[in-house]
Design brief:
Layout: E1 2-8, H1 12-23, E2 28-31, E3 46-47, E4 50-51, E5 56-57, H2 61-79, E6 84-86, E7 89-92, H3 96-107, E8 113-115, E9 132-135, E10 139-141, H4 143-156, E11 160-161, E12 170-172, E13 177-179, E14 182-189, E15 209-217, E16 226-229, E17 231-235, E18 241-245, H5 259-270, E19 278-287, E20 296-299, E21 306-310, H6 316-333, H7 347-351
Helix pairs in contact: 1-6, 2-6
Bound molecules: flavin-adenine dinucleotide.
Flavin-adenine dinucleotide binds near residues 33, 40, 211 and 310.
């Protein structure tokens, strides 16, 4: 079988890359082993335009927000699923200093933050003493709907191989690659953290980050917003289910959920949520983050048959569609990739053991 592109991984990166290649009428095959703890299967799906205690706009916020709203809406319509919802963040101030700092941001004309006149409206559900601010627009992307629906589409079109890709079986030729009975013009790795051990890309400055979260049943909480106080409480697509998290650990000795996180999450809830809840699950995964917090997109400087779409860090839901589209345009129409994301910036590193 000869195809244009072999894609390794169907997390959010491989999903969007295959989506855009299909739009360009390219032939492709996705190989995915459906790892249950892959980041994309654990993500809360939040798209938040600001970051940190100072609520500064995230990288490319003004461009990414309208782009992702439109593209996920289109994908939802094409697959006949609910793919994205607007869920603004209600940010409860933990102390008067944080309130003051938020007020300063509002006065500086930060377009994404505002204060509400009626600050009593959430007292029925939450305990809070210093009011709250609102961050908008924010979105939740329903990966629990998107990934299986896209997988079914790939299967139906015979574009998915459900197995583990074994790099030892990959043969690199001058202008193509060969894997078992498949020849492809390009192979693109969208394999999340597995790339940290990949012969061609392991020298890239990855910085894997561990994240834990609880899945809660909260039948009496209306799923109108994302709520934040210490941790973030996010409504999931399944009615009554909420996601509470997450931890951010740069240094860890294992990839399993910990009692320490569960205790911390329950203590947060005790001081925050007034409604009854049940813990349905405790999940844990490793974010494919990077040292300089920018994704890795593009073709290897020596082996241009091999490419990567990875390093989405904490922002896979917004970065993956945007850069999957850029990579597709680059592959098909030779348009440039944004220099901040293009792996060309690591050319000297990547040529070292090529
Ligand atoms: C707890 C947690 C919360 C998060 N919350 C958010 C959030 O709210 N918003 C946000 O934008 N981001 C969030 N993220 C980050 C986001 O999940 C990631 O940026 C994103 O999912 C990365 O997607 P990916 O497709 O690049 O990699 P992955 O999701 O890791 O997908 C890789 C895929 O490749 C497959 N694969 C790997 N190796 C092989 C192989 N050898 N053979 C076959 N298949 C293979 C795996 O099975 C998997 O399906 C969160 C992450 C975590 C852990």
């Amino acid at each position: 079988m000869h195809i244009s592109c072999l894609i390794i991984g169907q997390g959010i990166s491989g999903t969007w890359l295959s989506y855009f290649l299909q739009k360009e009428n390219q032939s492709f095959l996705v190989i995915d082993d459906h790892a249950p703890h892959a980041s994309s299967r654990l993500s809360a799906g939040i798209i938040n335009p600001v970051t940190g205690r100072r609520h500064v706009a995230v990288w490319m916020a003004d461009e990414l927000l309208p782009y992702v709203r439109n593209i996920y809406t289109t994908l939802g319509q094409e697959l006949n699923i609910h793919a994205i919802s607007q869920k603004d963040i209600i940010d409860f101030f933990p102390n008067p200093q944080m309130r003051l700092s938020f007020e300063q941001r509002v006065n500086e004309d930060n377009q994404y933050v505002s204060l509400k006149e009626n600050e009593n409206q959430f007292h029925h559900s939450f305990q809070y003493d210093f009011g709250f601010g609102k961050i908008a627009p924010c979105y939740t992307v329903h990966l629990q709907n998107i990934l299986p629906a896209w997988r079914s589409r790939l299967k139906k079109n015979n574009q998915l191989l459900e197995e583990k890709f074994n790099i030892a079986d990959l043969k690199i030729h001058k202008h193509q690659v060969n894997y078992k009975n498949i020849t492809a013009d390009k192979i693109i790795f969208c394999d999340g953290n597995a790339a940290t051990t990949n012969l061609w890309f392991r020298l890239l400055p990855f910085a894997p980050n561990k994240g834990e979260a609880l899945i809660l049943e909260i039948p009496d909480l209306p799923p109108t917003h994302i709520y934040k106080k210490g941790m973030v409480l996010v409504p999931l697509a399944t009615p009554h289910l909420w996601w509470l998290g997450a931890s951010y650990q740069w240094s860890f000795t294992h990839e399993l959920p910990t009692d320490a996180f569960k205790t911390q999450a329950e203590s947060t809830l005790k001081n925050f949520l007034k409604l009854p809840y049940k813990i349905a699950d405790h999940i844990c995964g490793i974010r494919p983050a990077t040292l300089e917090r920018r994704p890795f997109v593009g073709l290897h400087p020596v082996h241009s048959q091999i490419g990567i779409l990875n390093g989405m860090g904490t922002k896979g839901c917004s970065l993956a569609p945007y850069f999957a589209n850029q990579l597709t345009q680059h592959l098909v129409h030779h348009t440039p990739i944004l220099p901040d994301a293009d792996i060309k910036r690591f050319s000297s590193l990547l040529t070292r053991n090529a």
